[in-house]
Amino acid sequence: MAQPWPGGEHDPGGGGAAGWGVPYGGGAPTREKGATRALTLGILSFICLPIVFGPAAIYEGVKAKKAIEQSNGALTGRELAIAGIVLGALGLVVGSAWIIYTFSSGS
Question: Quick count: other Cβ atoms within 10 Å of Cβ 30?
């Protein structure tokens, strides 16, 4: 039986370890740090150094996505990893086009 919650109600979390709503055998899934890193690098690829940050975002995003898929639900952040991959690719393409345009139109 769940322990009473302050105010006389039962635990709104539905029971669990010590009545605090935490499931037995582990807590909530953890966000993959590489997914957040990929998103950050993808955003940076639009701001500065797209040739450096774009490929780094793509690499981190692919690595994080693979780790998330292999974790069987223990890790989250798949959407962040995908966003990092997409932003890194777009930053790389836009940045490369801008660099090519700048050097080819110079006088």
Answer: 12
User: DSSP class of residue 22?
Assistant: B
Query: How far does CA 82 lie from the centroid of its chain?
Result: 8
Distance between CA atoms of residues 73 and 80, nearest Å: 15
Tokens of 4: 């009473």
**Residue 78 above 70 pLDDT?**
yes
Q: How far apart are the first and last CA of the chain?
A: 80
Distance CA 13, CA 74 (A): 20
| 92 vs 83: CA distance, rounded Å | 14
Q: How far apart are the C-alpha atoms of 67 and 88, rounded to whole Å?
A: 19
CB atoms within 10 A of CB 81: 30
More confident residue, 12 or 87: 87
Q: 84 in helix, strand or coil?
A: helix
Count of H-run helices and E-run strands, the chain: 3, 2
